[in-house]
Write a structure and sequence with these properties.
By secondary structure, the protein is mainly alpha-helical. It contains ten helices and two strands. The protein is globular.
Length: 224
C-alpha cells in the first residue's frame, strides 16, 4: 500500500476537531439566554442587546417560571450590561486592550488575571443588580435564582463540554463577582460599588474579589 504521505494524520484530525468544537459550541449555544455586545457601536450606538427567544422559552418551561417575570429578569441582566458600558465609556476599550495583551503575550498570567477580574465584576454586578431590581417584578425570585444556579451547575454533558472548552470559568465569574458585589454593598452600600466603574484604577484586582473590604480601603478608605 505504500507509505502514508507525511502530515496526513494532522490533516484528518483538524477537520474532525473542528466538527467537534462546532458541535460543542452549538450545544452550549442552546443554553444562552441573552447577550450584550458593546463592541459594535457603528452598527448599534450604545451596544446591541441580544435575546435568544427559543432558549428563554425552553428555560422558563423547564424551571416552571412565570414567563412575563422571567423574561423581565433576563432583560434586567443584559440591560445592566448596557448601563455598565454606558456609564463607563472607557470600559469597552479597556477590555479590548486586555484581550489584545493576552493574545500578544499568552504566557503572562497577569494579563489573564486582570481580564478575569474585570469580567467577574461585570457579570457578578449584573447578577446582583437583576436580583435587586427584580423584587416586586419577578414572582418567586429566590426560587428562580436557585433554579438558575442549579441549571448552571447541572451535571452531565453541559458541564463536560464546558470543561473541555475551558468555559467553566464563566460560571466562576458569576459566582466570584456576585460575592464581591454583595460584600461591597453590605459594607458600604450600592453607591460604593458603582465606584468600581469610575476608572480603570478602581477596578478590583483578582485577589480583591475575595476581599471587598480590602478593595474599599484601597479605593475609598471605607472598608472595615
Amino acid at each position: 500500500l505504500g507509505r502514508p504521505e507525511p502530515g496526513w494524520l494532522p490533516r484528518l484530525a483538524a477537520p474532525a476537531a473542528g466538527v467537534q468544537v462546532g458541535a460543542a459550541f452549538a450545544f452550549l449555544g442552546s443554553r444562552i439566554l441573552g447577550q450584550f455586545d458593546p463592541f459594535t457601536p457603528a452598527a448599534a450606538p450604545g451596544g446591541r442587546l441580544l435575546l435568544v427567544a427559543p432558549n428563554i422559552v425552553v428555560a422558563e418551561r423547564s424551571m416552571g417560571a412565570e414567563p412575563h417575570g422571567f423574561r423581565q429578569w433576563v432583560c434586567l441582566h443584559e440591560v445592566t450590561h448596557r448601563f455598565q458600558f454606558g456609564a463607563s465609556p472607557w470600559l469597552a476599550g479597556h477590555l479590548l486592550g486586555l484581550m489584545r495583551n493576552l493574545l500578544d503575550d499568552g504566557d503572562d498570567p497577569g494579563a489573564l488575571d486582570e481580564l478575569t477580574a474585570v469580567m467577574s465584576l461585570i457579570e457578578g454586578h449584573a447578577d446582583v443588580t437583576m436580583d435587586r431590581a427584580g423584587v416586586g417584578l419577578v414572582p418567586e425570585l429566590r426560587r428562580l435564582r436557585a433554579a438558575v444556579e442549579a441549571r448552571r451547575d447541572a451535571p452531565g454533558m453541559v458541564q463536560l463540554v464546558a470543561r473541555l472548552l475551558g468555559l467553566r470559568a464563566k460560571r466562576e465569574q458569576y459566582r466570584r463577582g456576585a460575592t464581591f458585589c454583595r460584600g461591597v454593598i453590605d459594607i458600604a452600600g450600592p453607591d460604593a460599588l458603582n465606584g468600581a466603574f469610575e476608572t480603570p484604577a478602581q477596578l478590583p484586582a483578582l485577589a480583591e474579589l475575595a476581599d471587598p473590604a480590602g478593595w474599599l480601603r484601597r479605593v475609598a478608605g471605607r472598608g472595615r
